[in-house]
Design goal:
The chain is an all-alpha fold. The protein has two domains: 73 residues, no CATH class; 95 residues. It contains seven helices and no strands. α3 packs across α6 and α5 crosses α6. The longest helix has 20 residues. The chain is elongated, with a radius of gyration of 20 Å.
Length: 174
């Protein structure tokens, strides 16, 4: 959310949008399971005791039913698939691409901005060269596939953003 520019840092003052009580049909065998989208920090997420928020379940979130002084850490195939296929992640990558296109005038400036925001560093010469080759190849494929030229930048930068979001440097603190 921070990279895409959509994080709302303000406290969440509005309640979650529960359905009206007359529409509740919750029972022991049909418990409340809704999750609510939010652009606020995760501390404001509503969490039912019996059902973990799917994102937290995938990424070793805390057990809300027990004291958790330390949490296990895992790297699983499900986590990798999340970063490849999740709609929320694709949405954030699209927004990050839009942010880069708006904030920087050309490819090299966008690369610098993307690396500064994502990794707090400049891309190396080797990274720049490999990414220039990637952008050229992506433009060729989009043109060969008949994608209108005006859509190329947005699609290429969104693809680049998704790749950044999957890097170890972004995901893990060393």
């Amino acid at each position: 959310l921070t990279l895409s520019g959509t994080l709302d840092p303000a406290p969440m003052n509005e309640p979650h949008p529960f359905p009206p009580a007359e529409k509740w049909k919750y029972t022991q065998h049909h418990p409340f399971k809704d999750t609510y989208k939010t652009n606020h920090r995760s501390v404001y997420l509503m969490g039912a005791r019996l059902n973990a928020v799917p994102f937290f379940q995938t990424f070793d979130g805390p057990d809300r039913n027990a004291t958790t002084p330390t949490r296990d850490s895992s790297v699983t195939t499900v986590q990798a698939l999340y970063f490849l296929n999740n709609d929320f992640l694709h949405e954030q990558a699209d927004r990050f691409a839009g942010r880069l296109l708006k904030e920087a005038p050309d490819t090299q400036a966008r690369l610098s901005r993307a690396f500064a925001l994502t990794f707090q560093r400049e891309p190396s010469g080797d990274e720049r060269a490999r990414l220039d080759a990637y952008f050229a190849a992506a433009r060729e494929k989009l043109a060969a596939g008949g994608t209108p030229v005006e859509k190329h930048d947005k699609l290429i930068w969104a693809s680049f953003a998704r790749a950044l979001f999957r890097t170890n440097e972004f995901l893990y603190n060393d």
